[in-house]
DNA sequence: ACGCTCTCCTGGCCGC
DNA sequence: TGCGGCCAGGAGAGCG
């Protein structure tokens, strides 16, 4: 589900609803997400106040007194703020309960999510240590991608999805950005020109920005905090469109398996 | 270091 | 209607 735009959409949805709230308790209904949930959370959290909800890569950072919660939505995670008395549904694994009677409810069918407490600044956690630059900041440039890619044989699509290179580009937006930049996803990263990387860096920023503006992309179950889907799906040009005509040239969109992930591209527009 | 595969988990869909 | 197989928005682990 969530790539950077969906995580950012989630952040913007919940931040005003949980900022400055006091945590009264936490309810853990499963022992284990991608990492085991620490039962100590029930002792650590009560009484702490939330100061900010930030995002780094696809992680959400909920800053509190003395530390912060690090949250990753995995493939299928979803966060909503609801009254704590709301009926618990299937896969509602965690409630962060506030003293105002509401709770932040974490639902994750596939249990690929992560939730853990970090002492001090959550940005210093090892999970975040090796991450690449934020694509929406100015530090993602064509020059950077070009330099990092020299002598790399990996296909450019899995290359730009590597969070150590640049964060936030997942399977949907990787295909979309490569289409917009006119680059075939299976080309070796090291063989792509500086000019193409300039374009690609720009298109990554562009497509992520547009997706955030649309509230993210809903394929199956992603929901914004108000329960509405993300509307960017209508603007996808290649993802999920195998066999359909290219919006630019009418060629049939091709689907190909690359690094175990479905990839979509136009054989005419992308070279 | 790099490139590749497997793995965690559940649900939905497709074909038989 | 049931069942097996495959696929799904992520990413860490382990292998050669």
What does it look like?
By secondary structure, the chain is an alpha+beta fold. The chain has two domains: 4-129, N-terminal domain of MutM-like DNA repair proteins; 142-265, Helicase, Ruva Protein, domain 3, CATH 1.10.8. The chain is 25% helix and 22% strand. The protein is built from seven helices and ten strands. It has helices at residues 4-18, 41-44, 126-129, 142-149, 156-160, 171-181, 194-213, and strands spanning 23-28, 50-56, 59-64, 67-72, 78-83, 92-98, 102-107, 114-119, 254-258, 261-265. A four-stranded antiparallel β-sheet has the order 1-6-7-5. It has a four-stranded antiparallel β-sheet with strand order 2-3-4-8, with helices on one face. A hairpin with a 2-residue loop joins strand 3 (59-64) and strand 4. Helix 1 (4-18) packs parallel to helix 7. The chain is elongated. The mean pLDDT is 96. It binds a DNA duplex (16 and 16 nucleotides) through residues 1-3, 6, 32-34, 58, 72-76, 91, 108-113, 127, 152-154, 158, 161, 163, 170-173, 217-222, 259-262.
Distance between the first and last residues' Cα: 29 Å
- Count of DSSP E strands? 10
Mean pLDDT: 96
Give the radius of gyration: 20 Å
What's the quaternary structure here?
single chain
Q: Which architecture of the largest domain does the CATH hierarchy give at level 2?
A: Alpha-Beta Barrel
The number of helices is 7
Assign a percent range to the helix content.
10-25%
Spatial ordering of strands, largest sheet? 1-6-7-5
- Spell the H/E element sequence: HEHEEEEEEEHHHHHEE
Main β-sheet: number of strands, strand sense, barrel status? 4 strands, antiparallel
Q: What is the CATH first-level class name of the largest domain? A: Alpha Beta
């Amino acid at each position: 589900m969530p790539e950077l735009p969906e995580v950012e959409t989630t952040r913007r949805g919940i931040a005003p609803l949980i900022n400055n709230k006091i945590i009264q308790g936490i309810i853990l209904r499963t022992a284990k997400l991608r990492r085991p949930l620490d039962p100590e959370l029930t002792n650590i959290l009560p009484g702490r106040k939330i100061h900010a909800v930030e995002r780094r890569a696809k992680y959400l950072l909920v800053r509190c007194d003395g530390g912060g919660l690090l949250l990753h939505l995995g493939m299928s995670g979803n966060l909503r703020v609801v009254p704590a008395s709301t009926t618990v549904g299937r896969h509602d694994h965690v409630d962060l309960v506030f003293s105002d009677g509401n709770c932040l409810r974490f639902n994750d069918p596939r249990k690929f999510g992560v939730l853990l407490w970090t002492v001090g600044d959550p940005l210093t956690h090892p999970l975040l240590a090796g991450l690449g630059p934020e694509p929406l900041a100015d530090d993602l440039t064509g020059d950077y991608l070009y330099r990092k890619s020299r002598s790399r044989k990996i296909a450019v699509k899995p290359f730009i999805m590597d969070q150590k290179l640049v964060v936030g580009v997942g399977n949907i937006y990787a295909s979309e950005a490569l289409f917009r930049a006119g680059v075939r996803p299976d080309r070796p990263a090291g063989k792509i020109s500086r000019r193409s990387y300039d374009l690609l860096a720009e298109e990554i920023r562009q497509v992520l920005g547009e997706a955030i503006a649309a509230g993210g992309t809903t394929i199956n179950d992603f929901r914004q905090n108000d329960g509405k889907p993300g509307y960017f799906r209508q603007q996808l040009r290649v993802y999920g469109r195998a066999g359909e005509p290219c919006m630019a040239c009418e060629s049939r969109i091709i689907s190909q398996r690359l690094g175990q992930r479905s990839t979509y591209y136009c054989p005419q527009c992308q070279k």
